[in-house]
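CORE FACILITY INTAKE
Project code: CF-77B
Contact: R.S. (postdoc)
Sample description: multi-component assembly, two entities in total
Requested service: structural model of the whole complex
Turnaround: standard
Below are the sequence entries exactly as provided by the requester. Do not edit them.
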Amino acid sequence: MTRLVLTLACSIGVLGPAGCGDRSGSAAPAGLEQGLVITSTPVAAALLRELVPESMTVEVVVPEGADPLGWQADDAAVVRLRQAELIVFHGTGPERWSRTLSLPSSRIHLLADTVRTGLILSEEAITHSHGLGGEHSHREPVFGTWLDPAMLRPQGEQLVEALIRIEPGQETLIRANLAAWIGSLREASAVVERMRSLEPRSQLVADREGYAYLARALRLDLVDPEDVDETRPSVWFHGGIAGDDVVTLGWPDPLEWSAESRGFGETLAQRLASLEQAIAEAE
Amino acid sequence: MRALARLAWLYASRTPVQTAIVSVGVAVSLALLVTGRVLISRAEMSLTARAEAVPLVAGAPGSRFDLALALLYFRPTPIAPMTMGDVEDAATLGRGVVVPVHASLTAGGDPVVAVGYEFFEQRALAAAEGRFPIRLGEAVLGWDTARRSGLVVGDTFRTDRRELFDLSVASPIVLRVVGVLAHTGSVDDGAVFVDIQTAWLAEGILHAHAAAATLPDDQIQTRTERSVVVEPTSRTERDVSAAEQADVHMHADPRSLPVTGALVFPASDKDLTILQTRLNGDGRLQAVRPVALVRELFDVVFRLRPVLDGVTGLLAATSIAMIVLAAVLAARLRSEEFEALDHLGTPRSFVIGLVVAQTAINLLLGMLLAGLLVAGAAWSLDRWLGV
């Protein structure tokens, strides 16, 4: 009855378009938290914190201590992600949990998009075949692009463009942060160049494929602990068996990044310098 | 004056058939006069409001009207799909929000519309109960759909089977109700909304099955260290509960995934113009302004207005003649009664007033009835437009 009365009122023009027409439609999404940038790993957060102005907040959606590769987002985490003005994902393995979630794709920035052609596909996938699709495997890009300074820099440069889109008023400051950050990467790049020129024989040993980009940058083999060639010197990122030509680095997991006291570039340079020293010791 | 009105009313109520015939005649004449204009203005208002809410729609080349109908009103139309690659390319232009829409599924006859999350933001939709979909297989019901179906948050239902005799088409999937949209007074009230990925799940592009490496031997043809061949009879899961979401995968290039089209919400008028030009640029896609389409449609309708006005004028003249004729005939029928009143010394003006009052009663009843007829027609139009 109410509807009929409303229809009658509309039909004789008592109510205006606002009362009778389609009431939905708005250009500005409600519920967005201004200046909020959410990312998935501590390493991406560390990168972001060097680039964003003070007016922006950086959060990591994966709880501290949780492994992003095995974590599953609960409803509250998805709701929080939807409040962000910008969501920064690596675009490789660490956000496996996000693939079937309903997220605002227009606000997601994938760091790996900038270096898509240089991505390494995981060897861990098992080929299988079912249905009409034929034989296939679910090979995914390996994470850890940030361990190669040459791949890291374009990701930072592209990320800055995304930050400027949401904070155009802070462009000068954001670009200044980028310049400082690029400067901080010089030392890490220099270490990589130095190691490449030495043409080491060592093999890098890790049970995670996250070091693949670093190994490629250094022109070294990255091998699984079970496939170690014992005739060659080896540098283990974690664990390792004692021996004259075996050096264990004890690096944190590639996805961990606790660099509160140092800058991103400085931390990376320090890790690479320790690797350089380890290779020298092993050889 | 009161006596006059009372006498006129008594006459009308004592001669119900005569009153009804005259009133219905008046009502039909008036309704015919008004309905055309009301329906046109109402349709224009409704279509324009919906069109204004979405500045630009994009899709594969074809009928512009079919594209707009499919994306704005979720009507099944024979249009070619576009791909997610096209949607991503449009979004990469960075001039607005591009929302993919997949609108070829139904459940219980209602459209199941798969959309990117930004659809809810850009259309400023709110959940009256529950929440928007978060995971695969979750659905939020439009207000009318929820009332009609009786489904509440926590219930499950299946999508309709698309091709009854084609076994290669994926079987229906189970959807779980997680929310009901607040009433919008728009076509959204009669739809079911799911995340865009759920459409690909329904089409069988995304699917879940137990990890190939862990399947029992009776479902495996051959198994090596790095390769497993599963029996072709192995079934994929059609009810993707939260626990199985991690197993969902696809074998297609994500850029090749099909969508009906995209709703585009540019950041400014300048961005709208640039986006439309770019999207129409190479002929692979078409971008259409729904408001321009509605204007075009009604330009054609209004070009017929002189004809409509002529018909309306004729109808008006016929109606007035009919009302006068009815009044004159009624007065003739009551001539003896009027003579008796004259003999009783009743002033002539009273008799004339009586005729006028009775005509006014017939006109009032006719207008009331005409109003109901017009409202009914407008209501039917709203139903047809899905408003």
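Facility notes:
- Chain B touches chain A through 66 residues (CB under 8 Å).
- The mean pLDDT of chain B is 85.
Invoice: internal transfer
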